[in-house]
TrEMBL record:
Keyword Signal appears in the UniProt entry: no
Domain HTH tetR-type: 6-66
Keyword DNA-binding: yes
Pfam family, one: TetR_N
PROSITE patterns: HTH_TETR_2 (PS50977)
GO molecular function, one term: transcription cis-regulatory region binding
Keyword terms of this UniProt record: DNA-binding
InterPro entries: Homeodomain-like_sf, HTH-type_TetR-like_transc_reg, HTH_TetR, KstR2_TetR_C, Tet_transcr_reg_TetR-rel_C_sf
Name of the protein: TetR family transcriptional regulator
The entry's DNA-binding region: 29-48
Amino acid sequence: MTTETTSTRERLLLAARKSFAHKGFHGTTTRDIAAAAGLSPAGVYVHHRSKEDMLYELSRLGHEHLVGLVEDAASGPGGSADRLREIVRVIVVMHAADHESARVVNYEIEALAPEHRAEIEALRTRIQRALRATVQDGVAAGEFHTDEVAMTANAISGMCVDVARWYIAGDRWTPERIADHFAGIALRMVEAG
């Protein structure tokens, strides 16, 4: 693939992401995406099979990146509290710093074709599994105290992902400040101490 082709593919994905974030998947046309990328509508299909294919690619890339970050944090150094703190930090920072993409991949998942959705759900399961295992390890080591490991892990994950919905770039709260604050909340949720 040439650099020009790669550049055009990336331009189309960026245009799709922005359009999906502002108009929603169903409110966006391939004509909208093409215009934002500076192409004719037919030019979209040279690089992507469909609008859904672009949503899938955005979702896959974002989730694969987050899986790597979370799994690295879950297997990192230190005790369970250190690992949980780092998991929360990477999820929050990614969802705030790239909140536009995060909103698209989290809130437009219903628009994916069944086989694509299954693949994204499998990636999400890996993220949740790493988070739950970290909480479970902390309970087993006596660092954490919760009778509901899965529910607590779901609550932690939910608050972290939801940052993408309300975060405003340039506001007084930086992604790092939110991540530190949420890490503290997560540790209180598991009654670390």
